[in-house]
Structures are given as structure tokens and as C-alpha cells.
């Protein structure tokens, strides 16, 4: 009987010997492609006018549309979100310690360290996965110069509490809003909160411009300083006012971004439909919990996140990742192992004794599954069937896994953020 079960499993899962369920990879973050005819028309216009960069008409239009989406805030487009964060920290003249969650993409911490600041990592809320205001209060010191909150997965963090903390201390509150374009907190769009928010338009994001980003702020003077800094410090053609760099968005990226903005309603509908399909496909499986969004707010549902409870699930998160990768479903372990346990931060003296229990638990248990334009409803059902088959055959599957150890990064070493 055991051999029959083994033979059956070999015919159902690629990791046990079957052919992969998908002939080509299904990635987390497959780009949303805008209407091609509209994009090509914009590119023809760009080439005909020979205006390729330096605050061209598409960049200006892109900024104007983003401003309208965010209740009229100032929008300063930049070459990418990481540079945008560095530029913002420079414009605010931040010096000292910066409080931020370890549970974020490494670029958030890198931008701070690159500016000569000391990142101080704090824990996150167990339910929302975003920065815990109580942890922020506990980590405040005389050297705290700024707070960086990170919105995650397509919903926003607890803005009001963070604003109160920053206001009481008289320090800037910055938001890494790479995941939060089109989202609201208490009905107010992302760009209206805090001192400023940095958004990303990387190719994998909800709104994409190939590469790009923007700084959103209600502060007009700050926006003026940022515009100087992103263009070498130039005011006008030849009047250099301050030390600056080249952080401008080009016209091609802006044209792509405009097309992506125009399709944003459809992107949200697709993401929400996918979330619903996954909920149905994974229903009833022990130890799996689908990340929920706040129904009172606008969310973009950019990421499909599943928590794998090691006490209740027959398989661990990492075992499920191995199973899925073998099927060409390139699930991700966001944000393993956490910034505080990643180079160069883990080797800093302060980090060696640092413990962030919620962050570390999430890093060990979260699973991100393909969504967006990269999968269909039928494919989501197939992914659910793979997971269900693996969990229902956990004991037998584990014996296969014990003889098949895969290298770190399997099977694709180059992955997008």
C-alpha cells in the first residue's frame, strides 16, 4: 500500500518525479503591461520631438496625474525608489539614528546607511506586518533623527500613532510606500501622510515605469529642495544652487508609467480577483492563513501573502517553497532573513544582541505566491492543488525531501525585489 501511495505521489508532484505543472515559471511580481498602442504612440511622440529627458512633457504629465491621485500633493519623480529615499533623507538633513522595521526590503535600510545614518531596527505588528508604534516608542533615544514607516503588501501601516510620536519628538516621519500606490489610511491617500512618502515604480510593482520612483509630500518647500537635488543642484540652465546628483526620471519611463496608471483600475480588479481565487483554492488547509486587507480602505492587493503556521501545518514554509519551485511556481520568502540578520547589518555590534521576535517569526513563515498579470484563475487553482496535494501527503513527501536537498536560491538565483 505504501508503494502505491508513493507511485501516486510521483505522478502528482514534480519534486517526486512528475513533470512540472507549469512549462515556464510563474513569478511573484510579473509586470503589468500597459496598452501597447498607446505606449507606442507616446514613444513615437518622444522620438519625433527628440525630448528624452530633463523634465520632459511625459514626466510632467506623470507627476500631475500622481498628484491628482494623492489629493494634490507635490510629486517629485526620480530614477528609482531607493535613490528617492536617499534624496529625501539628504533634503531633510537627517543625521543620527533612524528607526525603521527590519521586516522590509533591504533597500529601505541601505538607503539610510548609504546616507551615513545608523539604522535602528524595530519590530512589527503581528497582524498587519507593519511597524509597531509601541516598538518605536521603546527604541527612541536622544540620537533618533527620523522614523521610517513601511507600508506593506498593498495596505498602509498605523499612520496616526506614528504621526503623534514624530510630532511629539519634532522629527520627520517618512514612509517607504513602495507597495502602497493607490492605497488610503482613514480614507486619505498615501501621499498626504507624514513628512513625505517614497513610492516605487519598479517593473514588479503595481504601477510600473520599467524603473522609477517618486517622492510625495504636502511640503512645497521640501519639494523645491528635492527638485534641486535630483538635477545636480541646478536652478535654471546654468545656476548651481547646491550639491546635487542625477536622479531624474527619463521620458521613456514616464511614458510607461502613464500607461500603467491608466490601467490601474484593471490591475486592482485582477489582484482582488486573484486574492479571492486563492482564498477559495486554499480553503480548509491546516496551518495556512491568507493575509487579509482592511476592507474600510482602498488597497491595491499587490501581494498574495500566506502565513504558514509551523505548529499547525504538516509542512513548513520552506518545504512548500521547494515543492512549488519544482513545479515552476517561484514562490518567495519575503523578507527572509530580515534586515537585522542580513549583511552588513548582522555584523554591527549593536545587531549581535538584537532580537525582533515578530519579525523573525514572519521571516520564517511567510510565503508570497504569484499574482497580478502573471497568473490566471485556472492557474491559481492549479497552484492550490499543488499545495493541497503536498500537505495531504506530508509524511510521504517529507521522505522524498529528505533525500533531495536543494541549493540556496533554487532554482532561480536572479530574482526581482
List keywords for this structure.
417 residues, alpha/beta, Aspartate Aminotransferase, domain 1, Aspartate Aminotransferase, domain 2, 2 domains, 3-stranded antiparallel beta sheet, 14 helices, disordered C terminus
Count up the helices: 14
CATH A-level architecture of the largest domain: 3-Layer(aba) Sandwich
Structural class: alpha/beta
Q: Could you name the ranges where pLDDT drops below 50 across 5 or more consecutive residues? A: 407-417
Query: Average pLDDT across residues?
Result: 93
CATH topology of the largest domain: Aspartate Aminotransferase, domain 2
Tell me about the largest β-sheet: 7 strands, mixed
Q: Helical proportion?
A: 25-40%
Domain count: the total is: 2
How many strand elements?
16
The outline comes out as globular
Briefly say what this structure is.
With 417 residues, this protein is an alpha/beta fold.
Structural commentary:
By secondary structure, the chain is α/β, with parallel strands linked by helices. The chain has two domains: 2-29 and 264-331 and 370-402, Aspartate Aminotransferase, domain 1; 36-262, Aspartate Aminotransferase, domain 2 (3-Layer(aba) Sandwich), CATH 3.40.640. Helix content is 38%, strand content 14%. It has 14 helices and 16 strands. The strands form five sheets. It has a seven-stranded mixed beta sheet, with helices on both faces. A three-stranded antiparallel beta sheet has the order 13-14-16. Helix 3 packs parallel to helix 9 and helix 4 (81-91) packs parallel to helix 5 (106-114). The longest helix has 18 residues, at 264-281. The protein is globular and about 75 Å long. Residues 407-417 have low confidence and may be disordered.
Amino acid at each position: 500500500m505504501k508503494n502505491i501511495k508513493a507511485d501516486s505521489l510521483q505522478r502528482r508532484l514534480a519534486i517526486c518525479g512528475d513533470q512540472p505543472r507549469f512549462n515556464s515559471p510563474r513569478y511573484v511580481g510579473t509586470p503589468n503591461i500597459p496598452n501597447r498602442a498607446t505606449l507606442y504612440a507616446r514613444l513615437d511622440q518622444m522620438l519625433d520631438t527628440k525630448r528624452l529627458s530633463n523634465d520632459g512633457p511625459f514626466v510632467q504629465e506623470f507627476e500631475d496625474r500622481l498628484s491628482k491621485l494623492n489629493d494634490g500633493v507635490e510629486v517629485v519623480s526620480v530614477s528609482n525608489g531607493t535613490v528617492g529615499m536617499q534624496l529625501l533623507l539628504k533634503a531633510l538633513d537627517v543625521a543620527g539614528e533612524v528607526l525603521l522595521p527590519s521586516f522590509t526590503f533591504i533597500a529601505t535600510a541601505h538607503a539610510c546607511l548609504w546616507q551615513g545614518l545608523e539604522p535602528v531596527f524595530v519590530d512589527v505588528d503581528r497582524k498587519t506586518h507593519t511597524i509597531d508604534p509601541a516598538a518605536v516608542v521603546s527604541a527612541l533615544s536622544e540620537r533618533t533623527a527620523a522614523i521610517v514607516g513601511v507600508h506593506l503588501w498593498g495596505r498602509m501601516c498605523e499612520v496616526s500613532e506614528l504621526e503623534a510620536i514624530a510630532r511629539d519628538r519634532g522629527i520627520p516621519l517618512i514612509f517607504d510606500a513602495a507597495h502602497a500606490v493607490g492605497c488610503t489610511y482613514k480614507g486619505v491617500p498615501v501621499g498626504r501622510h507624514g513628512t513625505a512618502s517614497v513610492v516605487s515604480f519598479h517593473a514588479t510593482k503595481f504601477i510600473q515605469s520599467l524603473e522609477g520612483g517618486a517622492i510625495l509630500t504636502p511640503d512645497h518647500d521640501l519639494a523645491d529642495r528635492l527638485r534641486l537635488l535630483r538635477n545636480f543642484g541646478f536652478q535654471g540652465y546654468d545656476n548651481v544652487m547646491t550639491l546635487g546628483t542625477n536622479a531624474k526620471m527619463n521620458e521613456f519611463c514616464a511614458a510607461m508609467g502613464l500607461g500603467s496608471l491608466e490601467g490601474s483600475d484593471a490591475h486592482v480588479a485582477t489582484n482582488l480577483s486573484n486574492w479571492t481565487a486563492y482564498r477559495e483554492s486554499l480553503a480548509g488547509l491546516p496551518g495556512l492563513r491568507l493575509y487579509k486587507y482592511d476592507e474600510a480602505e482602498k488597497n491595491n492587493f499587490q501581494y498574495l501573502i500566506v502565513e504558514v503556521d509551523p505548529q499547525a501545518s504538516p509542512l513548513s514554509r520552506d518545504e512548500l517553497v521547494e515543492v512549488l519551485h519544482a513545479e515552476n511556481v517561484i514562490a518567495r520568502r519575503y523578507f527572509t532573513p530580515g534586515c537585522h540578520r542580513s549583511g552588513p547589518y548582522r555584523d554591527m555590534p549593536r545587531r549581535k544582541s538584537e532580537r525582533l521576535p515578530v519579525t523573525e517569526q514572519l521571516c520564517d513563515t511567510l510565503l508570497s505566491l504569484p499574482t497580478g498579470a502573471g497568473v490566471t484563475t485556472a492557474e491559481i487553482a492549479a497552484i492550490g492543488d499543488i499545495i493541497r496535494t503536498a500537505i495531504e501527503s506530508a509524511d510521504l513527501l517529507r521522505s522524498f525531501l529528505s533525500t533531495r536537498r536543494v541549493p540556496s536560491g533554487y532554482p532561480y538565483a536572479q530574482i526581482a525585489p
